[in-house]
Design goal:
The chain has 59 residues and is mainly α. Helices cover 88% and strands 0% of the residues.
C-alpha cells in the first residue's frame, strides 16, 4: 500500500509544476480566465508542498 501511495505522490510532484506553468500562462494571456489561472496556481503550489512533504517523510 505504501508503494502505491508513493507512486501517486510522485505523479503529483511531476504534474504540479506543469499545472503551475499553465496557470501562469493563463493569468498572463487571458483576462477572462484570470480567476481560473489563479486557482490553478494556488492548487498546484499546495499539491507540490503536500507531495514534497510526503516524500520527505518517507525517507
Amino acid at each position: 500500500m505504501s508503494d502505491f501511495i508513493g507512486q501517486i505522490i510522485l505523479f503529483l510532484l511531476l504534474v504540479s509544476p506543469i499545472a503551475f506553468i499553465v496557470g501562469i500562462i493563463i493569468i498572463i494571456a487571458s483576462k477572462q480566465n484570470r480567476k481560473i489561472g489563479i486557482k490553478l496556481v494556488i492548487a498546484s503550489v499546495i499539491a507540490f508542498i503536500i507531495g514534497f512533504s510526503v516524500c520527505l517523510s518517507n525517507i
